[in-house]
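tool_call: predict_structure(chain=1)
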Amino acid sequence: MQTISKSLKVLLSALFISNILLLACVAYFLLNNRQNFSAERIDINDKSGENRIVIANTDNIPQPIIAGKTYKRAYSPAGLIFYDKNGDERGGLAITDNEETNLNALAFDYQNADAIGLLAQDNKKDNYFRAGLMINDKDLSGKPGYNINRINLITENGNASLVMKDNNEVPRIILQVDSLGNPSIEMLDKEGKPTWKQ
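tool_result:
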């Protein structure tokens, strides 16, 4: 009859005990109805200790970091921030609710500024609202926070439009259906003056 080695017995005993402990923990959380937990900020780090994702409320949202330097955030949203391996911000989800407006945005960044963003906004003191997609070129000057807005697909106060701009952010083609349902196509010169409309 074959016998079990001492090291295998130790391993099996350890597995048995760890399973008992795991079951006890699961039972404890289920019996105490602790299916959720609360936190004001959660940092998810890589093995070197750099933040890769931060989830936080408005009081604990981190300031933006670009090329290792910290800048002041225009608003203090609640949300989720993504970071690259160097610790620089590379996008995120922001939920802003202040006295003036509700503004929700999802952004993905170039190395130094916003690249693409989805947003939804409605103001509290007037009837202004908008929702859309913004696409930016990278500003090759390298100035942190600078980009060149090129394409906006947006609905704003009932007017739906696709606006394409040149590299100076001047609208050059606007396709629109206004709040009354009237469609139009407009072309503009480099000064932003209309040259053709249909």
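agent: The first helix runs from residue 6 to 31. Proceeding to next step.
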